[in-house]
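Suppose a colleague, Dr. K., hands you the sequence of a protein chain of 334 amino acids and asks what its three-dimensional shape might be. Before reaching for any lab equipment, you can write down a predicted structure in token form. Begin with the sequence itself:
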Amino acid sequence: MRRPLNELRLLAMVVTGLTMLAACGRAIAPRPTIREARPELRGYIEDVTHATASRYGLVDDRGHEMDTVKVIALPESGGFGGLYHSYRADTGQYAVHLATSADLMNWTWRRILAEDASMPTIKPASDVGYVVAWEQEPPNHIRLTYYRSGSELLAGVGSKTFDAPLRLSSCAEGTPNLYAASSTSVDVGFHFYRGCQVDRQARGTTDWLTWTSAARPTLDAALEARGVMGGIGDRDVIRFRGFDLTLIEGQFVNEDPRTWRVFLYDDQTEEAEPLAFRTAAGSIAFSNPTIAAIEIEGQTAILVTLFIPGEGARGEEAGELIYYQIYGPARTTR
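The predicted structure, expressed as tokens, is then:
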């Protein structure tokens, strides 16, 4: 029996619609949950022995120790830029340095950006240029500097600075990370020296003229629930599978470098879980984490840096560790 024309058209539309839905299902995978994203990220970063590339005791080509290095893509240099601090025996102080690299393992020193300064970080501005932050002495506080371009950064010529006033501690506020940054506003994570005895977490914002800050007791509580009784300090954030995931250091016993560990935290679950890093010689203490998604040699990778205190190091692993793990093709073409 022949079907009416309208019925045939309707049937064709249904078949076409089902085919399109099936195709979409194959092309667009469902977004992972936070419970799926966390273990995936751990799988990329915990086992240093199987990283795509790694280097312990990181130094630049002039022999400066690259402690607490924060790395970003710096197209103006032809590769990557890294900010770090190194102790200067001639002055008895730390200084913030800038170096560049094409492969992340070998670094060329460019210049000193700040004297009597430490714990630097950097983020591309959302409008144009770069924002840099570090701990400045005296007193121990956060200083922000804005560079209008990579060329100005490489030349060490900032266009404006801001010194954050101490609001939560009369002793020290420092070790910044940057959640958001532009030429008009900055969102800063940092720690404050609570009661001048132990570091705890805080967050601040500035329009380059004024400063507002507040403690973050929920973040502190997540690490305290894991037995952290000492300092809760440096942290860095990566946007991974649609979630902001934080690497943060915590010290089980105050002032005991052997007890520094790094935890993975997210604002959705408000949970912190210890990360079990596996190094070639089996070092046990890790601090000052940074993490970033990068593109290298046409591939997407997770880049991590950690400081390994000498007291918790094994073999020749003391100092700054840098490594990355490739996990897919590049998402953009440059």
